[in-house]
Amino acid sequence: MSKDFRDVDSIPGERWFPKKSEFLEDMKDYWGDWGVASEVTKLKAVLMRRPGKEIEDFDYNEVRFRAPIDVDKFREEHDNLAQIYKRHDVAVHYVENQREDRPNAVFMRDLVFMTPEGAIVTRPAMEQRRGEERYVAEALAKLGVPIVRTITGDGIFEGANGMWVDRKTVILATGSRTNRSAYSQIEYDLRRMGVEDIIPMPIPYGHAHIDGLLNFASEDTVMIHAPQVPYDVCEALMKKGIKILEAPSQTEAKDTLGVNFVALEPGLVIQPEGNPRCREELEKNNIKVIPIDFSEILKGWGAIHCATVFLKRE
């Protein structure tokens, strides 16, 4: 060996190796206890918007309300719903900030679709609602809820056009409030998360969302507004052993939103008052019903399911 030879130390190899884990394994440690893959399992946490200045002065015709509202009663009904959640050990979180020209912001389900890995922040279809989602994203971030996607490009999607059947199955609708571009974005993420069966549901002209037409009261019971739900959707549910209950009153299904309830747990739902026939049908099929006055909020063509984002179900 030449006396001029110099032995240079090698550059060390990697000493900081990645943690081998799935996102769901890390969720509780790094983000919190969030996630939804059901419409009916035990409800543990929700996100809501208590109506603020946005409902104090607006043109009801411009934003698709049926009539002028009583502001105090509107807020009281919303507070009463929140109290029912709290009495059933549901943590209620709020979107604190919102545009003052968005009275429809109370209908939170349209702004988020929750998954096992976190939230999909939507992109509302109507100009009169566009921009509400920014403040929902702000609230989710403050809570530590992961945002797995924000609908982008030319996609439009409202969260009430997605509905969990079980961990492997989701109903996903298209119509005036959700287009194919957004459908494809959501389908990609759901399949990545292990969803195997996506049931497509075209929303009829004159309707907006799944939850006004179809809703789960328990893991094996669903109520539908029969003339407006495609047979293929019902057939897919029946093949899974799910009992189909038909709303017995078209008036209740369409005007007083008897199908737009929220399950606190399998077989226990909160339903808007003024739907006696739908309530009777549910109770005949072993579903317990907690009625609540939502008549003022119903003037905005939305009810209990519309007003609630599920953040955690067991």
UniProtKB/TrEMBL annotation:
GO terms for molecular function: arginine deiminase activity. The lineage of its organism: Bacteria, Bacillati, Bacillota, Clostridia, Eubacteriales. This is Arginine deiminase family protein. Transmembrane segments: none annotated. It comes from the Bacteria. Pfam families: DDAH_eukar. One of its GO terms (biological process) is L-arginine deiminase pathway.
